Amino acid sequence: MEMKSPVRQREVPFRRQRILAVLSSVLLLIGSLYFARWMLPEREPALAELKRPVLLIDPGHGGYDGGAIAYNGVKESDLNLSIALKMQDLAAFYGLSAVMTRQDDSPRTDTASYSEHEDLVYRADLANSLSSCILFSIHQNTFPTSQPSGAQILYGPDAESRRLGELTHRNLINGIQPENRRVAAPAPKELFLTSHVNCPVILVECGFLSNLSDLQRLCDGRYQSSLAAALMGSYLQFTDTSRI
Ligand SMILES: [Zn+2]
User: In the chain, helix, strand, coil percent, each to 5?
Assistant: First the structure.
């Protein structure tokens, strides 16, 4: 039976309900990953009052490009968007603005003028047009065999990207994937986005569509919320320690 993509069930009017639904996992993750290690002093300003680099969220692929496709038809681009929107909701919950490279699955161009390279150039240009930002590019992995599983962080070439990547990797492992034995790794030079932006950047491969257990979890809205919370917590933690 074909599994329905959770993205198709998403309705914008239910954004508030989604926020409430993820709140418990947010409190757990943000609480353990953020406040427990960096207890805020009494006079610390509210999260929204801190001057932070803009959170730039890139749901990979989209439009004509579905990315990796699972055996049951679930598209990587849909999962990427669903997780990214939950992350955007969390940012709004904290009074922080987030910029998205795409907000839905509609193509930016007509079929004739579409090119994957041009689409990546657009995303990189958007990042470079912001005076200060942190870029999370959200993707899903796939492999010819079903054995590989788990999230993988690939970070950009600079030291801050590496710090963001290793921090986010730790948070994913500690928060939701304790069985994961991977390590954060430098992104290959051939990855266009991580090589062509001037800000701290990580590409987050949340899991493998070719692994049944990963696929089931990635299609679960609650698991997507946990992923989004871990990424959001990493952004807050990274930008908080960046100020010191
Ligand atoms: Zn991808």
Answer: 45, 15, 40
